[in-house]
Every structure is written in C-alpha cells, then in structure tokens.
Amino acid sequence: LSSAYSVPRFTSDPLASAFPAQPGPPRRNAWDGVPLNGSPLDDLAAESFLQRSMSMILEEAVKKATDVRQKVCEWRSPEELKELLDLELRDGGESEAQILERCRDAIRYSVKTTHPHFFNQLYAGLEPYSMVASFITDALKPSLYTYEVSPVFTLMEDAVLRKMVQIVGWEEGDGIFNAGGSMSNMYAMNLARYRDFPEIKELGNSAAARLVVFTSQECHYSISKAAALMGIGTKNVFVVPSDKRGKMIPSALEEQIKSAKSEGAVPFIVNATAGTTVLGAFDPIDEIADICEKYKLWLHVDSVMSHLFSSHRANSVAWNPHKMLMACLQCSVFLIRDKTRLLQRCHSARASYLFQQDKFYDLSYDTGDKSVQCSRKPDAFKFWLMWKALGTRELEQRVDRALAIARSVWGNISDFAWLKPLSNFYFILLPLYLQVAPVIKERMMKKGSMMVGYQPHGGKANFFRMVVISPQVSRQDMDFVLDEIHSLGMDL
Amino acid sequence: MYFYVQSRFSLLTADGQTMEPTVGDLSDPLINHTEGQLFLHEAFKIIVEEVLCKGTDVKEKVCEWKEPEELALLLDLELREKGEQKEKLLQRVRDVAKYSVKTSHPRFFNQQFAGVDYHSLAGRFLSEALNTNLFTYEVAPVFVLMEAEVLRGLRELVGWTEGDGLFCPGGSTSNMYALNLARYRLYPEVKSQGLWSLPRLTIFTSPESHYSVKKGAAFMGFGMDNVIFVKVDDGGHMIPEDLDEKIKLSKSQGAVPHFVSCTSGTTVQGAFDPLDRIADVCDKHKLWLHVDAAWGGSVLFSKKHRHLMKGVNRANSVAWNPHKMLVAGLQCSVLLLKDTTNLLKKCHGANASYLFQQDKFYDVNLDIGDKSVQCSRKVDCLKLWLMWKAVGSTGLEQRVDKAFFHTRYLVEQMKKRDGFQLLREPEFVNVCFWFIPPSLRGKEKNADYQNRLAKVAPVIKERMMKQGTMMVGYQPLGDRVNFFRITILSPLISQKDLDFFLDEIERLGNDV
C-alpha cells in the first residue's frame, strides 16, 4: 500500500481567518514559553504523522492481521512484554519516528483478532465497512445525546433501531445502542423493575418487596453482575436448571416462580438466552413466553450471540452485531417492545444544561435521556454503513454460512474428544473435550498458530470451545484447527 | 486422517423445517480483503480531507444545519435488501462528514470536549483496527499492561503511590462504580442479598454536580430521593458545614449516610468543591469520599493550577475523563481508587469459568476483566498513552495552562465590551455570561426583564447554528435565566478565535 495521500494541507492556522484584523490591545504571542497564537502543531508534521500512521495501520493491523500466513499472536511473558513496550509515561515527549515505532510494537505484540485462526472469543473477523465507520466516528468524535451536536448519528441510530424492531417482528418498539451486551441486560432488568414498580426510581428498592429474577444456569454472567449492581442481589437471581443440551427447562421455571411467590418474593423478569455462551443452546422461547404471560413477568431475550430469532414475544431483546456480524466493537443493541416511552421515563434526569426545553428544533430528537450514560458513542453508524454496503440479504447469508461451516466439519473425531450434537439448530459451537487443553493452549499461543478457548463446564473437565462465529472463516481454516490440535497434542 | 468433511448437512430450524443454506462454496474466503482494504484507503482520504482538514479550518462552517426531516431525506437512511457499490458508499461517507458537527473546529465551544490531537487520533484508529477486548492477558496482552501503566501514571498525579482503577465507558459509569464500591465496602452482603434487608442508604452531592449521580442512584436501587443535595455558595461550591448538617440530619432520620460525591469542575460553572474541608467531614463520619473530576481532573497536570484540587489524595475514588480537557477523544474515562485490597474485583467479580480459568499458563492476576461490570470492554487507554508519550506530561501541562490563560483573556475582553455580563469571575475554563442586547440594556428594573432576557440566548443559538459560524451552549441554572457557557479548552484555538467569538455574539444578538 503506498503511503502517498494527496490531500490538502491542514489549514488550522487561525491567522488565515477570513475576518479582518481588529485594532486592539497588542496581543501576546507567548506566555511562560507557551505559544498562544497559531496552531501548536506544525501543520506539515501533523499531516505527515497521520499519513504515515494510517499507512502503517492499514498494512500491519489490517492487511497482515487477516493473512493466514502470519501468526495469530506473538506471545511474550508479561515481564518481557513490559520491557519491550517501555510503557512508562515521562515528562518529555518523543519524536514522530519513535511514536510510529511504538504503534508498530503495539500491533506486533497484540493478538490478531481478525485472523482466520482466531477462535478464542465470541467475536472475530474483520468487517471493513464497520471499520471505516469507526474511523469516521473517531475523527468526528461526536457524542450522541442531542440532535444539535450529533444530527446525522441521531437519525441513523433511529433508522437502524426501527429496522431491527421490524426484524424482531414487533409493530412498534424503542431501543438504544449500549456500551455492551451486559449493559443491555441491565437495562432490561431496570425497565422491568420500573414497569412494575415505578416508585423505585425515586424511593429505591425498599419501596417494593424482594424482587427476583429467573434465568437459566447457562446464562451469561452479566445477569448476576446486573443483579448485584442494581441492588437486587445475586441470591435473588433464581437459576433454573437446563437439560443436557443446555436449554432452560420450562416446567422447572414455573416451579421456581411458584416457589419464589410462596416465599413472599416478587418475580418480575425472566431472562431467556438465545445462544448460550458455552454450549450455544437456545432456550425454548415460546414455552417460556407462555409462562411469562401467565404470571405477568417481563420476558427478556439475551440474544447477543446469535442472529435474532423467534423473539417477537419478548418484551425486550439484547443483540450484539459485533459478534456474529463482525461489526467493530462495541456494537450492542437493546430493543424494547413498547410505545409508551418507557425507556425515557425510566432513565430520565432531565438535566437542564443539556436538554433545554426551549430549543429551536423538535426535542424528541434529543435521545440522550433514554440512556444511563451521558456521553455516548454513535455505534449504530458502524452497523448502518455495513448494512447499506451489504444489504439485508447478504447479512443473512453470512449467518447461514457460519452455520454451514460449523456443520461441514462435523465428522469423525478421535476417541479422546467428544462432540456435542447440534440438532437444535443454529449453533456454531464445537465442544471438543480434551483432558490436556491447558497444555495445548499454551503451545498454540507460543507458536502463534491459532487461538481457541477452553473451559470446564458442569462436571466435565476442560474442553475446547471452537466458536465458528466469524463468517469469514473457510473450510480450510476449520481443517487446519483440528489438524493443529491433533499435532500439538500428539505427544500428550 | 483426523476427520473428514461430510457432505453438507441439511439444517433444521427450530420449528422443524429443513433448510438448505445457499452460501456458496465454503472454501472461498467470504470477504475480499483486497477490496476491503482499498475501501478503507479511499475512505481514509475522505476522512482526512473532510473531517480533519476542513473540520479544523476557520474558513469552513462548524455545522451544516438541517431540519431532522430534511436531513433524513438527504442521508437516505433506509436499510434495504441489497447492498451498494463502492462509489455510492464513499459518497455516503462524504455526506456523513458534511452534515456532522465539526467538534474539532476552533469555534466549537458547545461541550466539554473540543479540538483534536493527532497522536490520540492515531491511537483511536489503531484501537479500532486491532478490535480487541480488554478482559484477559491472553487476548489483549499489550493493552492489559498499558492500561495498568496509564492508571499508575494518573494515580501518581492524584498523589497515590498505590491503588487500583479501571477505564470505564464514560464518567457516568465511573461514578456508578464508586457508588457500588462504597456500598459494598460498608455492607459486603449487598452483593448477594441486595438492598432489601439493609437500612436506607443516603448519598450526598451538590445540586451543581453531574446528573449521573442521580441516574446512578436510581439504577442501582438507592432511589433518587436518597440523593441529598448539599447547599452551595454563589459560585456553586459545596458548603462543607451544610454537608455535616445534612449528614447528621440523615442519621437522625434513621438512614445510613454512606457516600459523598463532590465535584472538581462542575459542569456549568466549573466550580471546584473544597476537597480538604469536605474530606474532614467524611473522615469524621467515616463516609466514602468520591471526587467527580471528570471535567476538572486534568488540572492535576498543571503545577500552577493543581491547587484547585488540593486534598484530592484524601479521597477514596476519583473519576477523570481525559477525553475532555486532554483532548484524547471519546471514550476515555477513568476511575481511580486508593484501595489496595482488591475491592474492585471482589465487588464486581463473577468468576465466569469460560473466561477466567484459574489454570492458565500465565499469572491470572493479569486477567482484569472481572474488575468490570462489563464483559466486552474496549481499549480506551491506547489513545491517552500514545498522546502522553508523544507530548509528555509537560506538553499536557502546557495545554492546561494555555486554556486558563485564554480564559483570562476572554474575560478581560468581555469586561471591555458593553452587553456582556459575567455570572461571576470564572475559576476554571467555563465562562458563563449573559449577552444583553441593546434593546434590554438599562432595563433591569423592568418587571419582564428576566423573561425577555431568557429568550435572548435561544435566538442567538438558533442563528449561529443555522449560519454555522460557531457553537456555544446555553442553559438556566437555579433561578438564573438562560445564559451562555463557553468552555475554552481546545489546543487549536487562539486569541483571534476568542475575539471572533465576542464579535459574533454581538453580530447575531444586536437586534434581538
């Protein structure tokens, strides 16, 4: 990639202003050595630095990072890495060349999460359109609380949310982009609590009886963290057992609800998971929805892992396009089936320095009070640009492809591993039980050939979790992974 | 052979239908990386030209105002079945840049962030390109170490040689974490049992503090009513004697005061609460002292101005947002803690075994993810670290000092002109003032003066936005009607921009 961008010079020199100079007091040009007028940066230097750093980023962090011939990671022990990076922050600054070298080092020793052999987490792959959108937002650095400061992104977020509400299958809805799926799950709990007991917003939890949450034993740990943060308490998260495929057992859910009520507690929300973190299981949403309707509980579907699926009976849905659709982190959505502005009413604080009521435009476009955050990044734009570029059809095909790849490697595996059947659809997870997972993991990381996560689960020993979440992976990559595990572990 | 590739399975959907995926040849790479990189290349040129060059050029507009309905049409927001060609997408990139507000423009004074630093910008681009999560050393080795070093450097400025901390997705979250830690320290059982069996906990802050304290209180189950407002003086500073009174009152009512949030650099007036005296009160009553220095924390870089935060080392926690005065770019928000007992991890940890395995081959204390309430967490430390390395602490100090000097200049000039009335002498870089158009001058005694004055700022604001010449915010405060608040922090501005600012307010407002 050539590094020659022909762009106009930066003209940040205010002395080049079109306004005529005013007569006035003599202006000081410097004070205590600090220059007061003119840009602090040499314009040429700024331009050069930006061009060179971008070239390097594109070459090293984007191009090479997706190249299967390069390593996934360049393992160093923490002590060694600290020395290599020279992290200390000092009084004096450094030259452009040094800074570029530091960028290069940061890239070199970072794990290439976009590499075709990176299977360690529930996100992977490189999506260039969402990356461009990220760069634009980083350059513009807007904050998404009012229309006046972020006109474009306010409208975009709204357009994306509307479309997603449509896809879920609701006639009307609301939503917001969040700083992560954990936060989306928290929002669900907060809204459910507010719906049933709006006075809690002012008076606190003690205005109601002890509230309880229901979720499956396979759910994401953010439910537990949310309960702690929101003053509900982790003990008041009732964990419903799941069957051997990892799906919540509806009859057990009903038992637990009755049991909670008999204790004098107040059930208020059920969290169902569409695609659990470890096993990739889908809770039976329809049956759970029946129970929620019967007991008038809020049904939240934590669907962050998977393509939205059968969630139209839910009150709220959490979905992360940064997982399967490969949008750059963060890209997390919270959707709610509501047309009473519940999100706004639940969270608002109506700060008068931000949400003045006498503005000259339609105030319903100031969406900041729907959030618990103040400054908020326009993550919706990453998804919007990608969607515009690819179209709904292509997005769907990508998801289908990921599934097909997972299926295509299901075959005979040696007898020291055990493969879980995937017949309840739509998961892309291949657990391979191996007693020696930690050793193989260490070897693969030091070799830098690939990264696959392992963990214990239930009563079972460590097993590898091969997540085929990135549609960019091909069959050869899958073959490689299994061959590599075999060769790394052969002597064990 | 280890395994063989079977013929494609037919897939079952949840309702039992079979589905043959039409996904093409699975050995083909899905994404054409060459094309993708070319797109990145082209888009970057547009970003440099439209956002960075034009966006910082005083000859260009700060914003290109459009009504929402009109803008929605221009942007063609609808998401369709089919994708689009590269040229079309590049045009979209151009449109986004054109209609977005140029927050780096020398005449953007609307929020507590502005300007641009090219090193932190490069750091932001790099963070996006590497696209990783900061929960374990294995996935983000460089950044786990880097975050620790940046936090150490910031803690040193606060005056702590040890401690803990984390980067959060915003100052609001930092404030919430502090609230959570204080609660957990006092009643560790709250994590598992919730607030149900605890006495009523109360929180103290000033009415000029950031609204995230109230939002946090609601979110976390305390209830907004249990946020007790302490009186402030005319300048917006918390009055420690009143804090003491209110704490005693709360106790007498059977509640348990547990947290004081004071502010270093209030949002509107830029006031710095008297930390030493407030710390005295907190020590006396044994309350957690949190300093919300999201806006003002950066004065700690300046030897000349750090006295504004004298006593900060006595706090238990400090929130600080480098994306504000240090121009690091959203998001860059830190929570710093004095604690050395691993309180953060104990309070937030869930020990998820799929992420934080205890049998890893490196020191698992480096897996810091469980300190956060988030799971995925973006890398926000690189932008600050790179900038700090590039300009040094001295460079950041100069930035802060310069902002103060510009503020003094603006205030001096304002006093020389008719029609500009300061709320009070600024303590920080927030300058709050009313513009009194000629039609209202001398009419202070009129009965409808306040009402008419309140209408001046909104009109001027509308005009400036529609003409795109600059952006500055206004708001009411207590019983003071709408006034402008200009925040002077961008390293790109000069005195000329400040002269322009005053001229422009006059130009836009003279006939109101």
Automatic annotation (TrEMBL), chain A:
Cross-referenced Gene3D superfamilies: 3.90.1150.170, Type I PLP-dependent aspartate aminotransferase-like (Major domain)
Classification via SUPFAM superfamilies: PLP-dependent transferases
Reported cofactor(s): pyridoxal 5'-phosphate
GO molecular function: carboxy-lyase activity; pyridoxal phosphate binding
Keyword line: Decarboxylase, Lyase, Pyridoxal phosphate
A single cellular component GO annotation: cytoplasm
UniProt-listed GO biological process terms: carboxylic acid metabolic process
Record-listed N6-(pyridoxal phosphate)lysine modification sites: K323
InterPro entries tied to this protein: PyrdxlP-dep_de-COase, PyrdxlP-dep_Trfase, PyrdxlP-dep_Trfase_major, Pyridoxal-P_BS
Lyase recorded as keyword: yes
Signal peptide: none
A Pfam family recorded for this sequence: Pyridoxal_deC
Assembly, per entry: Homodimer.
Family: Belongs to the group II decarboxylase family.
Protein name: Glutamate decarboxylase like 1
Organism, as annotated: Fundulus heteroclitus (Killifish)
Automatic annotation (TrEMBL), chain B:
Record's keyword annotation contains Zinc-finger: no
UniProt keyword terms in alphabetical order: Decarboxylase, Lyase, Pyridoxal phosphate
A GO molecular-function annotation: sulfinoalanine decarboxylase activity
UniProt xrefs under InterPro entries: PyrdxlP-dep_de-COase (IPR002129), PyrdxlP-dep_Trfase (IPR015424), PyrdxlP-dep_Trfase_major (IPR015421), Pyridoxal-P_BS (IPR021115)
Gene Ontology cellular component terms for the protein in this record: cytoplasm
GO terms, biological process: carboxylic acid metabolic process; heart development; taurine biosynthetic process
Entry cofactors: pyridoxal 5'-phosphate
Pfam hit, one: Pyridoxal_deC
Modified residues (N6-(pyridoxal phosphate)lysine): K324
Entry keyword annotation includes Iron-sulfur: no
PANTHER family: CYSTEINE SULFINIC ACID DECARBOXYLASE, GLUTAMATE DECARBOXYLASE-RELATED
Family of the protein in this entry: Belongs to the group II decarboxylase family.
Subunit structure: Homodimer.
Annotated protein name in UniProt: Cysteine sulfinic acid decarboxylase
Organism: Fundulus heteroclitus
